[in-house]
Design a protein that fits this description.
The complex is a heterodimer. Chain A is an alpha/beta fold. Chain A is 31% helix and 27% strand. Among the domains of chain B are: 137-203, no CATH class; 206-254 and 263-340, Beta-Lactamase, CATH 3.30.450. In chain B, strand 3 and strand 4 (272-278) form a beta hairpin.
């Protein structure tokens, strides 16, 4: 069965230093350098996912345009315009920093105000640096369960679950 | 033998004896006295003295400088300094006149022999001087540069106009050639004035690429490349998205107050330019180089309008599936030919 190729815009969200860019770098071959992030606050990369079957048994191949958006912090927020037209987002938290988890409600709220229909996957990055009982991991798992959000712990350093996180988002987009 | 007794009482005899005994000495004394008189005479004659000393002074000075250089410098320094001070105060014009050739020669010498070092030393001074002049006497600088810049600009414009005139002449001269006939025929087919076609052909202009992009998501709906650049590889999907990001950034940065309807229409680059026509659901971005014709923007707008009319529903509901919009690419190719291939 030939897969239908569909483009989707997705965003990488999270506070500064959680590993958004490192995850993208693990996942795609980059065309543009990081200077775009510090100038206009965004850098776009492309990744074609393997064909996936959706719940209607239709083969879909997603061509993801990944908008790696500068981090949220107390003083700066990314341009809301960058979220417009997003079909999904990968929200990244840092398992070694609790503040990256406490900031999640603001990030979700800001993003969903612009793209209410977007599919979301939450990832706890830097899993290689914490153990399974780490309070951050427990907190994040609970946060995802309460919000009914797909969740995966990842490591941009080792590559563990990075591809899986994007594919999980791809599956959500296909339905 | 009996001893002779001296006769002290006879002065003549004593004098005669003296003459006999001291004759040689007396002659020497006379000669010396004559020489002393002559020398006194010479010392009294200042002119003569100067002439004599002038012959030997250089040798004396040279010897002294060699053996007691430091002492001489110590002695002369305050005298020279005082002399210069006096001259500067009393006779500065004379001093300037005297020193000018020496200073000029010294500078010339430095230019010839230590050009790099001189440049190194002078550069910061000149730089500061220019900065100072620009900040304090901007108008004067403009006045000074205006004739030069004006001439440069007018020469450059004249050169460009000459080239343009030559191009037009060449094309007009080839009226009876097959190429010209073909151009006129194509102009007629495209509905363009043949004169306009000649002018368009003379002006360097070509559309390289056209992007139709979803205004909301920045996803690429269609993309066409000029046949002349078929080998030109672009990552059109990523470029489409980055262009959208840049467009959003600029529009947001220049947003004024409550007005949210400002759109980015043009982006200039060294060689290429980008013209953007924005509508409700999409924008059409054209990458070109050279000078577009006066109705280029109208043509771009008309093309976009036509796409919007024909594919309104698909554009409105667009969510990344291009299968219902594949024919747009052909329209874009046609557009490239229409604005360029006349």
């Amino acid at each position: 069965m030939t897969a239908t190729r569909i483009q989707k815009k997705i965003c990488m969200l999270g506070i500064f230093g959680v590993g958004k860019t490192s995850m993208v770098r693990r996942f795609v071959f980059e065309k543009f350098d990081d200077s775009y992030l510090s100038t206009i606050g965004v850098k776009v990369n492309q990744k074609i996912l393997p064909p996936q079957e959706n719940s209607e048994h239709k083969m879909i191949q997603h061509n993801l345009l990944i908008w790696d958006i500068e981090g949220f912090d107390d003083k700066t927020k990314p341009l809301n315009n960058y979220f417009i037209g997003s079909a999904g987002a990968l929200v990244v938290a840092d398992l070694t920093r609790m503040e990256s988890i406490t900031s999640l409600p603001t990030i979700f709220e800001t993003f969903q105000a612009v793209a209410p229909e977007a599919k979301l996957v939450l990832v706890g990055n830097k899993m290689d640096l914490v153990d399974k009982e780490a309070p951050t991991l427990v907190e994040l798992t609970q946060f995802a369960a309460e919000g009914d959000i797909a969740f995966l712990p990842t490591s941009a350093k080792t590559g563990e679950n990075v591809e899986a996180a994007f594919q999980k988002l791809g599956l959500l987009l296909a339905d | 033998m009996a001893k002779t007794k001296p006769d002290n009482g006879n002065p003549d005899r004593l004098a005669a004896l003296k003459d006999i005994l001291l004759k040689d000495d007396q002659e020497r004394v006379d000669a010396l006295e004559a020489e002393i008189r002559s020398l006194r005479g010479q010392l009294a004659d200042k002119q003569l003295l100067v002439e004599r000393l002038a012959d030997i002074l250089p040798q004396v000075l040279d010897l002294n400088v060699r053996h007691s250089r430091n002492e001489i410098v110590d002695i002369l320094n305050p005298i020279i300094a005082e002399g210069i001070r006096q001259q500067t105060g009393n006779n500065s014009d004379d001093l300037a006149e005297t020193l000018a050739p020496t200073i000029r020669k010294s500078i010339e010498y430095q230019f010839e022999n230590s050009r790099d070092r001189l440049t190194e030393v002078m550069a910061p001074i000149i730089n500061d001087g220019i900065k100072h002049q620009v900040s304090t006497a901007k108008e004067d600088i403009v006045d000074a540069l205006y004739p030069i810049m004006g001439r440069m600009v007018s020469r450059s414009v004249a050169e460009a106009m000459k080239k343009l005139a030559n191009n037009i002449n060449q094309k007009m001269n080839s009226t009876f050639r097959f190429e010209a006939w073909k151009r006129r025929f194509r102009a007629r087919v495209m509905g363009v004035n043949p004169g306009e076609a000649v002018l368009a052909g003379a002006l360097p202009f070509e559309v390289e690429e056209v992007y139709l992009i979803s205004r909301q998501s920045g996803l690429l709906i269609a993309h066409a490349v000029n046949d002349l650049h078929e080998d030109h590889q672009t990552d059109a999907l990523v470029i489409g998205s980055m262009l959208t990001a840049i467009k959003s950034f600029v529009e947001d940065a220049f947003e004024e107050g409550e007005e949210h309807d400002g759109v980015l229409n043009e982006i200039g680059h060294t060689k290429q330019s980008l013209n953007i026509d924005t509508s409700k659901y999409s924008y059409l971005a054209v990458v070109y180089n050279g000078v577009p014709g006066p109705d280029f923007k109208d043509k771009l707008q008309a093309q976009h309008h036509q796409i919007h009319e024909r594919y309104y529903r698909q554009l409105r509901d667009y969510e990344g599936d291009n299968s219902a919009l594949l024919e747009v690419e052909a329209d874009l190719r046609q557009f490239i030919k229409k604005v360029y291939s006349v």
